[in-house]
Amino acid sequence: MPTFYGTEIASRMMLGTAQYPSPKVLADAFRRSGAGVATVSLRREASGGGNAGQQFWSLIQDLDVAILPNTAGCHSVREAVTTAQMARELFDTRWIKLEVIGHADTLQPDPFGLVEAARILTDEGFQVFPYCTEDLVLCDRLLEAGCEVLMPWGAPIGTGLGLNNIYGLRSLRAHFPDVPLVVDAGLGLPSQAAHAMELGYDAVLLNTAVAKAGDPAAMAEAFAGAVAAGAAGHAADPMPPRDMAAPSTPVLGKAFLE
Amino acid sequence: MKITLNGEPRDVTGRNLADLLEELGQGEARVATAVNEQFVPAGRRATTVLSPGDRVEIVAPRQGG
């Protein structure tokens, strides 16, 4: 099971908490996914003194999983750093899922801002989970900046397109065999999560694929099954693919019937 | 005193951040704060004096992906 900054998590599923039809469905989805980490955010309370924040805090406490706050929606280093500082106090954790968004349409990470923010936050004692692309050089810089986990996207957030650059993801795994790697964002189907596991990834982080399914709790369980199957398949050392056919049934001893 | 609270103009009487939270009924709430884009830890709210035109952000836990 994956270990992030010295904390072992009893699941390879990390699940977001946004977009569910109701708090009950959210709780059911977590229960059936077996997820060990919940991503959360922080936002302004509605004017007029609502208490949605307190209610949500109670809900995530009851989930009894590790909390990973994000800096979603931040487009600058300064904004991301301030958000992380507020998140550390609010959620009482040094973990931060660092998002520095570089493009409004694709929600693609800003690699330059990401490295800068990761360095600042690491120096301040944060344990940074960078939402990044599968770019090898960027990932190398993030490790140099102090990150001990990498979270490359599979595809842009919320698209459900799956693993867009399998070569890049495989290359990352090969270059960083000892760094926990998490496919974060873009997964839509359980088979895509299984594929990430078959590539040797340590975990997947997903939200929309579960929350926006017709039956979120059932989809959460389907993803859990796929993640377990993919991880078991990887551990069992798959055969190498080949271009030419090779008969599985012995040729020797076949009856001559012509 | 006119400040900008969570992006909206607001007339408040609190002279520091702790007083402002009390005034808003959030003295005991689980929130985090920033003034003029700088994080203000809970322990420094009482000594963070507000000035007219300050931009105050008060945020609470929320769903996220």
UniProtKB/TrEMBL annotation, chain A:
MF terms in GO: thiazole synthase activity
Binding site for 1-deoxy-D-xylulose 5-phosphate: 158, 185-186, 207-208
Keyword vocabulary terms for this entry: Cytoplasm, Schiff base, Thiamine biosynthesis, Transferase
Catalytic activity annotation: [ThiS sulfur-carrier protein]-C-terminal-Gly-aminoethanethioate + 2-iminoacetate + 1-deoxy-D-xylulose 5-phosphate = [ThiS sulfur-carrier protein]-C-terminal Gly-Gly + 2-[(2R,5Z)-2-carboxy-4-methylthiazol-5(2H)-ylidene]ethyl phosphate + 2 H2O + H(+)
Domain Thiazole synthase ThiG: 4-250
EC number(s) per entry: 2.8.1.10
Class of the enzyme per the UniProt entry, highest EC level: transferase
GO cellular component: cytoplasm
Family matches, as SUPFAM superfamilies: ThiG-like
Active site: 97 (schiff-base intermediate with dxp)
InterPro entries hit by this protein: Aldolase_TIM, Thiazole_synthase_ThiG, ThiG
GO annotation terms (biological process): thiamine diphosphate biosynthetic process
Keyword Cell inner membrane: no
Summary of subunit composition and partner proteins: Homotetramer. Forms heterodimers with either ThiH or ThiS.
Function (record text): Catalyzes the rearrangement of 1-deoxy-D-xylulose 5-phosphate (DXP) to produce the thiazole phosphate moiety of thiamine. Sulfur is provided by the thiocarboxylate moiety of the carrier protein ThiS. In vitro, sulfur can be provided by H(2)S.
The name this protein goes by in its record: Thiazole synthase
Native source organism of the sequence: Primorskyibacter sedentarius
Native organism taxonomy: Bacteria, Pseudomonadati, Pseudomonadota, Alphaproteobacteria, Rhodobacterales
TrEMBL record, chain B:
Pfam families named in the record: ThiS
Domain of life per record: Bacteria
InterPro entries xref list: Beta-grasp_dom_sf (IPR012675), Mopterin_synth/thiamin_S_b (IPR016155), Thi_S (IPR010035), ThiS/MoaD-like (IPR003749)
Protein name: Sulfur carrier protein
